[in-house]
Amino acid sequence: MNNIVTFKDVSWKRSGQDILSHIDWELKKDEHWAILGLNGSGKTSLLNIVAGYHFPSTGKVTVLGNEFGKANLPELRKDIGFVSSSLERFTHILENQTVEEIVVSGKFASFGLYDKVYEKDWSKADNLLSSLRLDYLRGKKYILLSQGERKRILIARALMSNPSILILDEPCTGLDLLSREEVLHVMNEIAKYNCHLLYVTHHIEEITDIISHVLLIRDGKIVASGPKQEVLTDELLSETYKMPVKIRWEENRPWITIKNNIRMANLENINI
User: CA dihedral in degrees (106, 111, 114, 120; nearest 10)?
Assistant: First the structure.
């Protein structure tokens, strides 16, 4: 299967309002994408369509060979891992579970273990912890973990089911510098698991080596999509973020700066 995700002229409305408009986009085999845009640009809505939680108002969507309208979406979701801040609502369930129990629960897409767990499942969870450099957390309860450790354990949990697509929706939100870099290291290890990454962030410096392509979205419409070196330009990012910016590359990662003229204009408009 060469095309992992295909959107053809896809639009999505909510309460009569256009959230996504005429989206044409493809994620192909062995590609890993970052999705960038301002709040309210449509990023999360696009992810929810990929994961089968929203159905397009118009257009054609195919995910992992499953055409929406003909596919069993609950079955499709079993092949998609999803890590986002929305999982925090399950903290009260997770807090007294051990790291190993949480990772194994990813096999069943449950929060808590309600099915029989085999020795091979525990072994797989153990291997995931080792591969993602989380060995030191074995036996610890979720409530004792830092925010960064929790994010990394939830990524390991998502990988437990061998997903073909892994969606990471702003996983570094609220993390300090060290915790963020630890999460990004885990993200770079995902290439070993033969899944395709969709990574949403507000911070382009989080676009690490594993990311091959970038989708820029503004007001529900695509500004640009393609290989990251072609898409991450001053002009295209300025259009996406609605302000003049410039980009530089250091350590093979992009970094963004707001141009002085817009920064000074904003300061002059502040009433002190």
Answer: 20
